[in-house]
């Protein structure tokens, strides 16, 4: 929970600094241009965080590693299908490298340092 709290505090600090610098439209207010469609990514990100939390709590590291790899591949395929354009060469190179590293980390996790007596 500490990391989540740190991220929340950092986000609040950034918002306050942005408002103090007048880098955001202060006349309209924060929720002025929101529509019902604005809630779609907000709700999906919230549910995604809950699902990730449940997976992290109940699954082992190997299952989590495979879930991340499938998520990467699924994201690439959906981007290709939705956008209708081919993936960038860096994505084609990066996804297998990241998937391999996640697999290796899940299959052969780092050993905990030996306790000194």
Tell me what you see in this structure.
- This protein is 69% helix and 0% strand.
- It has 117 residues and is an all-alpha fold.
- The protein has a domain at 59-109.
- The relative contact order is 0.06.
- Keywords: Membrane, Transmembrane, Transmembrane helix.
- This is ROCK1 protein.
- Its main location: membrane.
Key traits:
117 residues, mainly alpha, 69% helix, 0% strand
Write the layout of secondary structure elements.
Blueprint: H1 2-20, H2 39-58, H3 61-83, H4 89-107
Helix pairs in contact: 3-4
Protein name: ROCK1 protein
InterPro entries: Nuc_sug_transpt
Main location: membrane
Structural class: mainly alpha
Mean pLDDT: 80
Uncertain runs are: none
Total number of strands: 0
Query: Radius of gyration, Cα only, in angstroms?
Result: 20 Å
InterPro entries: Nuc_sug_transpt (IPR007271)
Subcellular location: Membrane
Keywords: Membrane, Transmembrane, Transmembrane helix
GO molecular function: pyrimidine nucleotide-sugar transmembrane transporter activity
Quick description:
This protein has a domain at 59-109. The chain is 69% helix and 0% strand. By secondary structure, it is an all-alpha fold.
């Amino acid at each position: 929970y500490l990391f989540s709290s740190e991220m929340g505090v950092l986000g609040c600090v950034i918002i306050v600094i942005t408002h103090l610098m007048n880098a955001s439209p202060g006349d309209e207010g924060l929720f002025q241009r929101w529509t019902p469609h604005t809630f779609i990514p907000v709700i999906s990100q919230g549910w995604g965080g809950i699902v990730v939390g449940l997976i992290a709590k109940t699954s082992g590291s190997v299952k989590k590693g495979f879930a991340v790899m499938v998520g990467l591949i699924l994201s690439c395929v959906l981007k290709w299908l939705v956008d209708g354009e081919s993936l960038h060469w860096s994505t084609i190179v990066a996804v297998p490298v990241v998937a391999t590293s996640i697999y290796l980390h899940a299959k052969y996790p780092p050993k905990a340092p030996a306790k000194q007596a």
